[in-house]
Amino acid sequence: MKVAFLGLGNMGFPMAGHLADKGHDVTVYNRTAAKAERWLAKHRGRAASRPAEAAQGAEIVFACVGNDDDLRQVTLGPDGAFAGMGQGTVFTDHTTASAGIARELAAIAAERGIAFLDAPVSGGQNGAEGGVLTVMVGGEEAVFARARPVIECYARAVTLMGPVGSGQLTKMVNQVCCIGVIQGLAEGLAFAKRAGLDAHRVVEVIAKGAAQSWQMDNRAGTMIDGAFDFGFAADWMRKDLGIVLGEARGNGALTPLTAMVDQLYARLQRRGEGRLDNTALIRLLETP
Predict the structure, then answer these.
(1) 4-49 pLDDT, tens per residue?
(2) Is the dihedral of CA 101, 105, 108, 110 positive or negative?
(3) Would the N or C end of the chain have less CB density within 10 A of its end CB?
(4) Around 288, how many Cα atoms within 13 Å sit in the side-chain half-sphere?
(5) What confidence tens digit (pLDDT) does each residue in 207-218 have?
(6) How confident is residue 71, by pLDDT bands cut at 50, 70 and 90?
(7) Pairing relationship of beta strands 155-162 and 133-138 according to DSSP bridges
């Protein structure tokens, strides 16, 4: 299938690579052209200088950018992807963004005869590189059925959650659950160290019981060792929590833990540590 991929960050770079490796005809766009050149050095495809150019002739256009404003930038206006897309094509957005922007862009796309899916992902950079992401999708069932086989090039689970916006809402739930586990893990590991225990051995034991989690299996060791120069940055997690808290204010959901952890990430940012992996919350307990 002829496809386009907009945004070659830590997630988009390998995701687009999987599409090319599985035989799809891929055109990529990235705001920084040098990153597109690096992608072309590893994968077969083409690079475009504008989103509209990348989207021309594509049956599905994928995007994975930073936030709502970035998403508007690559979709709208004469240089945006919508300007290059034909009727009956599909725009699939993997950005973690607000449900509001998904509905806004879906309505604009519909006026042009373009279908829209909001499809945020979970699994981090490792999941993107391994092609085993979890994708939560909002949109129409018939459109989802067209896009799903292509999305499966870099995913192990692709699930339609409901109408447009449902994918983003599901991702918000995902982030709320993640940060609760990360903060609990940070407190437990810091406690273990203060108690004079071998924290690595503690994790080996409790990971076989009810405390086990993805965060424990994949991040406890790096948290103990103080390694945070990788992964999903605290800055990005705080961006995601801002989206959650804004949605909660609108729907009346109570999110006291999310609000507290959001402020802990704000402390990391004030300390100049916002680019560290989001598990760096433990640093606030070890070096307050």
Answers:
(1) 999 999 999 999 999 999 999 999 999 999 999 999 999 999 999 9
(2) negative
(3) C
(4) 5
(5) 999 999 999 999
(6) very high
(7) parallel
What rounded mean pLDDT belongs to the chain? 98
2 an active-site residue? Answer: no
- Look-up of token digits 């640093």: 283
Domains of the chain: 2-162 (3.40.50.720), 169-286 (1.10.1040.10)
Which own/partner contact pairs does 40-45 have at CB distance under 8 Å and 24+ positions apart? 42/17, 43/16, 43/17, 44/20, 45/16, 45/20
Beta-sheet strands, E only, within 80-182: 90-93, 115-118, 121-122, 133-138, 155-162
Q: Rounded to whole angstroms, how far apart are CA atoms 282 and 269?
A: 14
- Of the CA atoms within 13 Å of residue 271, those in its CB half-sphere come to 15
Q: By three-state DSSP, how is residue 4 classified? A: strand
Contact present, 284 and 267 (Cβ < 8 Å): yes
Locate tokens 């990005």: which residue? 236
Question: Do 279 and 233 contact (CB within 8 A), yes or no?
Answer: no
Per-residue b/e over 274-284, b at no fewer than 16 CB within 10 Å? bebbbbbbbbb
Cα separations in angstroms, 92 against 29, 65, 136, 199 = 15, 12, 11, 42
d(CA 281, CA 278): 7
Number of Cβ within 10 Å of residue 142's Cβ equals 8
Structure-token pair, residue 81? 């992807």
Q: Count H helices, E strands: the chain?
A: 14, 9
Q: Hey, is 80 helix, strand or coil?
A: coil
Integer Cα distance of 187 and 284 in angstroms: 10
Catalytic residue among 35, 171, 208, 239: 171
